Amino acid sequence: MASIGDEVFEVVDEQDRVIGRATRRQCHGDPSLIHRVAHVLVFNRQGNLLLQKRSRGKDIQPGRWDTSVGGHLAPGEDYLRAALRETWEELGIEEPILTFLYHFRIRNDVEAENVGTFMTCHEGPFSFDAEEIEEVRFWTAGEIAATIGKGIFTPNFEEEWRLFRRREERDKEG
Q1: Is the peptide bond before 125 cis (omega within 30 degrees of 0)?
Q2: pLDDT, tens only, 142-160
């Protein structure tokens, strides 16, 4: 049986064009191998954001709070299909209504990802795999702001939150 590290991702260039394939293990350790990820921000009616606490067994950022849903695109899959699939797999939300928000890039010493982010509204209940996710809960914007920079969140989520808030401010202005 193949391990999760043997999962294959499409490798893309800076313009998000497929240029090859590599395993998860190769991509998570070589930032020259840019790969694609879909994120979904799940809000409740009060505007609070659902975050997931990553399992301590994860290869990247174990035990930290992260974006509601995040997952790699399978070969041949587009960002929307991956977002729908991952929302089902990670939280048990069947056929969510997703709104596209933006694309952004994550670049660090460990990995390079091109991200497509969507949002949806859902109150729960949520069902998740305890081997992947330790816990989920809704956070207020104030709770998130007070916790940024304290090592509780993944750096990728902190970057995403700043981007989301800037977009929100631009939308308010006009």
Answers
A1: yes
A2: 999 999 999 999 999 999 9
